[in-house]
Description:
The structure holds 2 protein chains of 2 kinds.
Chain A: H1 10-38, H2 45-55, H3 59-76, H4 78-87, H5 89-111, H6 115-144, E1 148-149, E2 152-153, H7 163-187, H8 190-221, H9 223-229, H10 234-238, H11 240-256, H12 263-283, E3 286-288, E4 292-293, H13 294-297, H14 301-328
Antiparallel strand pairs in A: 1-2, 3-4
Helix pairs in contact in A: 1-3, 1-6, 1-7, 3-4, 5-6, 6-7, 7-8, 7-12, 8-9, 8-11, 11-12
Chain B: H1 6-45, H2 48-82, H3 84-118, H4 125-154, E1 159-161, E2 167-169, H5 172-176, H6 181-210, H7 214-230, H8 234-249, H9 251-258, E3 264-265, E4 269-276, E5 281-288, H10 291-297, E6 303-304, H11 318-347, H12 355-363, H13 367-381, E7 386-388, E8 392-393, H14 403-434, H15 454-460
Antiparallel strand pairs in B: 1-2, 3-6, 4-5, 7-8
Helix pairs in contact in B: 1-2, 1-4, 1-6, 1-13, 1-14, 2-3, 2-7, 2-14, 3-4, 4-6, 6-7, 6-8, 6-12, 6-13, 7-11, 8-9, 9-11, 11-13
Amino acid sequence: MFSFSAYIDLPLIWFGLISTAIFLYVVLDGFDLGVGILFPFAPTDRCRDRMMNSIAPFWDGNETWLVLGGGGLFAAFPLAYAVIMPALYFPVIIMLLGLVFRGVAFEFRFKASGKSRILWDYAFHFGSLAAAFMQGMFLGAFVQGISVDGRNFSGGPFDWLSAFSTMTGLALVCGYILMGATWLIMKTDGETQQWARKCAAYITVFVALFMGLVSLSMPFLNQDVKALWFSLPNFFYLLPMPVLSIVLVILLWHDLHSKREYRPFLLSIGLFVLNYIGLGISLWPWIVPYEITIWQAAAAPESQSLMLVGTVIMLPLVLGYTGYCYYVFKGKTSDEAAY
Amino acid sequence: MVNLDPVLLARIQFAFTISFHIIFPAFTIGLASWLAVVEWRLLKTGNPIYEEIYRMWVKIFAVTFGMGVVSGVVMSYQFGTNWSVFSDKVGNVIGPLLGFEVLTAFFLEASFLGIMLFGWNRVSPRMHFAATIIVAFGTLLSAFWILSANSWMQTPQGFFEGDDGRLYPTNWIQIIFNPSFPYRLTHMVVASYLTTAFVVGGIGAYYLWRKRYVKHARIMFGMAMLMAVFIAPLQPLIGDLHGLNTLKHQPAKVAAMEGLWETQTGAALKLFGWPDQEEERTKFAIEIPKLSSLILTHDLDGEVKGLKEWPKEERPPVAWVFWSFRVMVGIGVLMVLTGIFAAVLFWRKKLFDTRWFQYWCMALTPSGFVAVLAGWFVTEIGRQPYVAYGIIRTADAVSPVVGPQVAVSLLAFIVVYTLVFGAGSYYILRLIQKGPGTPEKDYGAHGMDSPPLLTDLASDQGGRSV
């Protein structure tokens, strides 16, 4: 049996890895959920075919990051997994069912004909919307804190439901729409691209609004968060974060009204990075906010060590061939694909 | 809504979602490997018939795989939502196995599936073939890890229980290669291959019977019959070894499979009967003397332990295990018989045009799925009342969620799965009806109702080739 706990802070490393996995999920599945939410609003059926083709080769891989998020949390922080999942019981189940509907829609839509095709178009839309909204609610519920007694969740079935979590739900839906629209600007042209530009510009306003609202309301939810951001000299150290966010929004707004095709997508990812880091700083070092720290929830050092060996070998490989697959399907998507 | 038992509901929910889920991997594990063989034949011979077969079945593969992915994501969260006490207690041991499954297998399958489905015009034929092989390899790797985790829950070892009641690993090799794992893995992979073979063979038989796509059908049917002749007879042998392993580590499960209540020497094999848990006996049994002892101990007068060796609260639900076992074995026998018939008919040069045998194979099309489900019922119900054998009882493993909560989610799963996977089965049947090699009316599965104007398309995408 081997363990690296004498040399390195395993829980810290694992916190970094899980956070990265969840972030990759948010970005990768974020844009394809966003495309799903926009789906029924596309001007023509032709656009819809194209939108779906632009993500069809990737959605499977993207969703696997969600499995890694769940599986990784279970493996590296079993206590956090055991407390958070029952606490978010209904949102998790609704998200999973939403993902069922949108996942099968990729295959079913092209095999259905006539009216039933419209059915799967809407399954795709509502499935994506439900999954995105629920993920946003996880965030809100998480930030508000989870009741814990001993090693178990001790709250009620609807603890996650609040005005704040509803707001974070809407915020994430808008964020995903932004990523989906900017992805389409990058991967399509002509009519679809023009429409995606309009959508992106429209939703940017909402994204900026929600970012402001969520950021400003966080300190009022928890004294520690308030102390962290609004005490000196922290305030000045952390000031670049909101400033940078504002700069990115302005750049994005500018790009959406010019001919740029790639940068809007990268900028919207940038916005997600900043928000995610901001969130991480606020919640550190809790893995179940205000109750359990990453060290308390950590799996046995032997378990984390074994997983670390596997991850160090496998993660570069996974990233490598994921990159290869994106490379194979580079360029603009056509509205029909050989298959 | 007052007395809803969260344990029972959570068990039903897990059984329902996992039973639905296992149908898809059981099929895709075999199908991926078979598609690799078909593509290998295509590259080797250049015969377009192989390409048409591949393109037909890869669509069925895509639909099945999609359903497998979405029902699988559900599983990876359900350990937490409904079995959080279990997750906390055994997470140190089982967590890494599931983590490795995602890292080594899921990403591999999901990423290269894209190339397999949509990469025809974007990568070389060799690279495409490589993608098919990688996907097939990925399905086997994921079987490796998940069956290792499941087998550990059946025959746990390589850990100690800490003062806090949680398990701590002491030896990873012992954990991964626990005693029942090699048997369960082999048994399941062979079961998947046979399931696929009987589906492919059944569809081939259907085309032969209808005299449609005869060239394609002969290949499908012929390959499937090869599996029935050479692989189907292996399964009872592997099953027997697996059974002996179970007898050593989980004798109560074997007693339930046999419907045996009293410990006996020279125990009879009950072909059929009605195990009664209350009265502690198996009613209306039709028996073959001494056969049970012979099978289990390889000795006519060997001793087999009966269920009364264990206190009542330590016994699994006997009737479920007893009957599921008979369903599985019965189908296994039918599969072996199919192989024998096929060999005889082939020898008489009548394999491809014997009408009754085509009916027979059509009737056995779904048999593999039934056998796989029945087999899992035996092993999972036979492990009760434990979730990890001898370590934690199912009743103690459940999350602190209330009954109505689980009732609502269970109902939602039943409605959604029935609807969605019903539709999936319908689309698969339509793909089969449509057959191989027919020009695509819907222009590739990811196209549109009619081919777009070429000029239109070209201008739309800056002149890229269609």
